[in-house]
Amino acid sequence: MKVRVVTFPGSNCDKDVGTVLASEFGASVDYTWYKDSFTDLPDLVVLPGGFSFGDYLRCGAMAKFSNAMESVVSYAKKGGKVLGVCNGFQILTESGLLPGALLHNRTLKYICKDVDLIPVAENKIAKGLQGNLSIPIAHGEGAYFADSDTLERLEKNGQVVFRYKENPNGSLHDIAGICNEAGNVLGMMPHPERAVNPYTGKMDGKQILEALLKK
Amino acid sequence: MFVAKINVTLKESVLDPQGQTVLRTLHDQGKNSVTDLRVGKYIEMKIDANSQSDAESLAKEICESVLVNQVIETYRLVVEKV
């Protein structure tokens, strides 16, 4: 199983997610620097958490112009699976691979804590996930926003993947993660890679990564 | 040489928690005549172009592709000769 993790200046969860995918799932992991392109078709491409380009202008706004993102967009259009976590989710919305945008948390506070996620049964990726999942969040700009037509479309198409049990940041419809219409691009604010190792006291992230790596 | 002056603000339909927090502080100070406050950002760009209209169309293109996320933001653009 091949996984590609894209590293932007300011990414700080690239090695975390790469290490977890290699050690827990036996994946062969390649890291792609944002200036580089790729043309192969790995089983999964990950846009990791962090603060790409210092979050200047808007979170994820600069990253979308990189060579690596051009490759990610073309890979996604061929049906390749993409996971964007936290800053990766912001990059996916900025680059147009997912609809909507991430706003400042309603409280204006940076929030770092475990939250309970409810997998949405109608969604293809979430189908089969068991119970509420306890996964950490760590973000200042994680309030999901989309206009009412887009929200209606997301709900109707079953594109909402996870909702917060208790909304921490003011996300509309309690949205914690969504996928594109085809179901091959997933963006989520919580960090599943931080809930895979028993040393962290949490294992629920493993189910999510497993669901994605499943052929 | 031209200068593009760009004001970016969140759309009216988007909650602006930063603006709301500043407004609340003003109300705490008794300045209740302030009824609304939105916080945005101001961007200035110098553009070397042959004409006002060339500078304006380049500035507009940059606003819409880079500087503004039109899902959540709106902008006002003024281009002046310097």
Automatic annotation (TrEMBL), chain A:
Function noted in UniProt: Part of the phosphoribosylformylglycinamidine synthase complex involved in the purines biosynthetic pathway. Catalyzes the ATP-dependent conversion of formylglycinamide ribonucleotide (FGAR) and glutamine to yield formylglycinamidine ribonucleotide (FGAM) and glutamate. The FGAM synthase complex is composed of three subunits. PurQ produces an ammonia molecule by converting glutamine to glutamate. PurL transfers the ammonia molecule to FGAR to form FGAM in an ATP-dependent manner.
Primary localisation category? cytoplasm
Which keywords, in A-to-Z order, does the entry hold? ATP-binding, Cytoplasm, Glutamine amidotransferase, Hydrolase, Ligase, Nucleotide-binding, Purine biosynthesis
Q: In which pathway does it act?
A: Purine metabolism; IMP biosynthesis via de novo pathway; 5-amino-1-(5-phospho-D-ribosyl)imidazole from N(2)-formyl-N(1)-(5-phospho-D-ribosyl)glycinamide: step 1/2
The enzyme's E.C. designation = 6.3.5.3, 3.5.1.2
Write the protein's name. Answer: Phosphoribosylformylglycinamidine synthase subunit PurQ
> Known InterPro entries for this protein?
Class_I_gatase-like, PRibForGlyAmidine_synth_PurQ
NCBIfam families, per database record:
FGAM_synth_I, PRK03619.1
UniProt feature coiled coil, ranges: none
| Record CDD domains | GATase1_FGAR_AT (cd01740)
Segments spanning the bilayer are: none
Pfam short name (any one): GATase_5
Q: One MF term from GO for this chain?
A: glutaminase activity
Q: Which GO terms describe its cellular component?
A: cytoplasm
Catalysed reaction(s)?
N(2)-formyl-N(1)-(5-phospho-beta-D-ribosyl)glycinamide + L-glutamine + ATP + H2O = 2-formamido-N(1)-(5-O-phospho-beta-D-ribosyl)acetamidine + L-glutamate + ADP + phosphate + H(+); L-glutamine + H2O = L-glutamate + NH4(+)
List the active site. 86, 191, 193
Keyword Iron present in the record's keywords: the answer is no
**Organism of origin:** Leptospira wolbachii serovar Codice str. CDC
Cell compartment(s), UniProt: Cytoplasm
Subunit (UniProt): Part of the FGAM synthase complex composed of 1 PurL, 1 PurQ and 2 PurS subunits.
TrEMBL record, chain B:
Q: Which GO terms describe its biological process?
A: 'de novo' IMP biosynthetic process
Reactions catalysed: N(2)-formyl-N(1)-(5-phospho-beta-D-ribosyl)glycinamide + L-glutamine + ATP + H2O = 2-formamido-N(1)-(5-O-phospho-beta-D-ribosyl)acetamidine + L-glutamate + ADP + phosphate + H(+)
| Pathway(s) annotated for this protein in UniProt | Purine metabolism; IMP biosynthesis via de novo pathway; 5-amino-1-(5-phospho-D-ribosyl)imidazole from N(2)-formyl-N(1)-(5-phospho-D-ribosyl)glycinamide: step 1/2
Its keywords, alphabetically, are: ATP-binding, Cytoplasm, Ligase, Nucleotide-binding, Purine biosynthesis
**Per the similarity annotation, which family is this?**
Belongs to the PurS family.
The protein's job, in short, is:
Part of the phosphoribosylformylglycinamidine synthase complex involved in the purines biosynthetic pathway. Catalyzes the ATP-dependent conversion of formylglycinamide ribonucleotide (FGAR) and glutamine to yield formylglycinamidine ribonucleotide (FGAM) and glutamate. The FGAM synthase complex is composed of three subunits. PurQ produces an ammonia molecule by converting glutamine to glutamate. PurL transfers the ammonia molecule to FGAR to form FGAM in an ATP-dependent manner.
Protein's UniProt name: Phosphoribosylformylglycinamidine synthase subunit PurS
Q: Which gene encodes it?
A: purS
